[in-house]
Amino acid sequence: MSTSLWILSYIAYSIIYKWIISWGGAKYIKGWKSVFFTDMESSDWSTEQIRLMTLFLWLIYTILFLIGLFHPEYRFFKST
């Protein structure tokens, strides 16, 4: 994956995570829709729990993004 595509994918994920945490997205996806954003069984979670898990996922993804930015061989998707 090219560096520009790597950065664009991080920006896209960051906008989604920011929407969930700060702009009312957690209230919108509360219930069965939260499974698509957190990748786990979160249909019974409250809005605050969804926000906390999203913050945790954003932190993990930021660390993985920085590793992939400085070491392209560790990126998730390799270009062939």
Task: Record the SSE blueprint.
Blueprint lengths: L2 H20 L2 H5 L5 H4 L8 H24 L10
Helix pairs in contact: 1-4
What share of the residues lie within helices?
Answer: 55-70%
Radius of gyration computed on alpha carbons: 14 Å
DSSP, total strands = 0
How much of the sequence lies in strands comes to under 5%
User: Secondary-structure element order, as H and E?
Assistant: HHHH
H/I helix tally: 4
The backbone outline, from C-alpha atoms, is elongated
Unreliable segments (pLDDT under 50, ≥5 consecutive)? none
Termini gap? 9 Å
Question: How confident overall, as mean pLDDT?
Answer: 84
Query: Structural class from helices and strands?
Result: mainly alpha
Largest sheet: none
Kindly list the characteristics that best describe this protein.
80 residues
Could you explain how this protein is built, in words?
The protein is an all-alpha fold. It has four helices and no strands. It has helices at 3-22, 25-29, 35-38, 47-70. The longest helix is centred in the C-terminal third of the chain and has 24 residues, at 47-70. The chain is elongated. The mean pLDDT is 84.
